[in-house]
Amino acid sequence: MSAAPFRLKELLRAKRDGGVLKEDDARWFLKQVALGEVGEAEQAALLSSIFFHGMEPAELEGWTRGMVASGDVLDLSGFEAPRVDKHSTGGVGDKVSLPLAPALAAAGCVVPMISGRGLGHTGGTLDKLEAVPGVRTDLDESEIRGVLEAAGCVICAQTEAIAPADRALYALRDRVELVESLPLISSSIISKKVAEDIDALVLDVKVGTGSFLVEEEEARAVAQTMVNLATAAGVHTSARLTRMGQPLGLSIGHTLEIEESIAVLKGGGPADLVDLVTLFGGDLLAAAGVTADEEAGRDRISGVLQDGSALDRFERMLTAQGAADALAPLEQAPDLADWIAPRDGFLTFADLRDVGLAVAALGGGRTNAGDRIDHAVGIVSHKFRGERVRAGEAIATIHHRAGAGLEECLRLLGRGVTLEPDVPSPQPLVLERVLPRPTTSP
User: Fold this and answer.
1) 188 an active-site residue?
2) Fold classified for 84-163+184-327
3) Is 193 a catalytic residue?
4) How confident is the model at residue 442, as a pLDDT?
5) Annotated catalytic residue: which of 27, 192, 220, 300?
């Protein structure tokens, strides 16, 4: 450890005892982390103190600015169109980003979307995109600019230069069970978005058993904190809490979700997915000043989905990111099995996390960050929540490889999905909108 030992010890002691980190100390610490000058023991000590004591709002703003300052900000000079992005906290079947980014580009925006990979019961946008043969998501800054120039949108991984302190600290948090911290989650997400040099951001904060945030109160707190952080950094930001007690769309699995996204880009697709694409697109177009209000923004997004211009942007993006034949049919899993209803009933979801894990059991998910995934496996439901199912009818079709993981998949589906005698009460997809306002300490 070559960082100034006295300053480091004082900083660790102050936060251990519940004190507030000064911004210059936070910036110094995070820069040293990015340079590899602070040991993992000291990093874990500070992260633990933040985990247990939380952070004051102003303290968290300074910490987030320090995360951004630990690396570089994307240079998007020369792009005259408004720069916008969307982030989701993740859920089962959540593929909104795939059609939304090209739709926003077709509607007159530049979309530098830095995304992540799936872990556990949720799928990652980058993993889904890589189901298209040849597509690269690990791009450097010059390559990001090239894709933006070709298509107006890019979906890629965090570069080495963007918020490098976040990359190091997140990997450590994952290993030592310090992920579930409101200030650390919020600063990790927002630091990367601020480093994109965007004008407007919308956040999709998922709530329910298919999300990492199961309770509304917790999700609301995370949404409010992130909105306030991004707003304080000069990014016009809002969030919506959306329900994740049932899958989004009908397809779960990387190839299957790409196909469903392309259906949306062709003017079709499941209504719930289309609703969120147009909703978030409308929010961003209004925030960026492209349209007079959200309603006009939603109309604009609907228009580019119907007229083919969003699909064209998607094809151009995939081609610029390495796809040889961007819209060619994708590889399908070689084997299919129908999941048959044992009795009459109305489809409900007892625990959507189990449904996501059912896809992982087939090979379509990962337990550890380095695990390989099978893009072609997955599940296609034939019913939405609340629809009637007859005994002997296929509830869903499972795409698998020679039965690998099929027994465990069926066990998890049987636990996560139920058939109830009565029609379940309707559940609105969108719960509420979150706008900037003062908040209490996280």
Assistant:
1) yes
2) Pyrimidine Nucleoside Phosphorylase; Chain A, domain 2 (3.40.1030)
3) yes
4) 45
5) 192
At 167, which amino acid appears?
R
CA 30/CA 70 separation, integer angstroms: 6
Q: Kindly name the residue from 83, 193, 366, 399 that is annotated as catalytic.
A: 193
**Annotated catalytic residue, options 27, 128, 145, 173:** 173
> pLDDT tens across 105-119, in order?
999 999 999 998 876
For the entire predicted model, the pTM comes to: 0.93
Go through the chain and tell me how many residues it has: 442
The string of DSSP letters for 313-324 reads HHHHHHHHTT-S
Instruction: List pLDDT tens digits, range 189-246.
Output: 999 999 999 999 999 999 999 888 889 999 999 999 999 999 999 999 999 999 999 9
Find the catalytic residue in 25, 85, 94, 283.
Answer: 85
Upper half-sphere CA count for residue 30 (Cβ side, 13 Å): 31
Q: Is 348 a catalytic residue?
A: no
Is 400 one of the catalytic residues?
no
Amino acid letter, residue 363:
G
Q: Tokens 């690998």 correspond to what residue?
A: 404
* 251 belongs to the catalytic site: no
Cα–Cα distance for residue pair 9/32, rounded to 1 Å: 14
85 in active site:
yes
Mapping DSSP onto H, E and C, the string for the chain reads: CCCCHHHHHHHHHHHHCCCCCCHHHHHHHHHHHHHCCCCHHHHHHHHHHHHHHCCCHHHHHHHHHHHHHCCCCCCCCCCCCCEEEEEECCCCCCCCHHHHHHHHHHCCCEEEEECCCCCCCCCCHHHHHCCCCCCCCCCCHHHHHHHHHHHCEEEECCCCCCCHHHHHHHHHHHHCCCCCCHHHHHHHHHHHHHCCCCCEEEEEEEECCCCCCCCHHHHHHHHHHHHHHHHHCCCEEEEEEEECCCCCCCEECHHHHHHHHHHHHCCCCCHHHHHHHHHHHHHHHHHCCCCCCHHHHHHHHHHHHHCCHHHHHHHHHHHHCCCCCCCCCCCCCCEEEEEECCCCEEEEECCHHHHHHHHHHHHHCCCCCCCCCCCCCEEEECCCCCCEECCCCEEEEEEECCCCCHHHHHHHHHHHEEEECCCCCCCCCEEEEECCCCCCCC
Structure tokens at 206: 């998922």
Question: 335-420: which CATH architecture?
Answer: Alpha-Beta Complex (3.90)
Domains of the chain, residue spans: 84-163+184-327, 335-420
Catalytic annotation on 206?
A: no
Give the Cα separation of 94 and 84 in Å (integer): 19
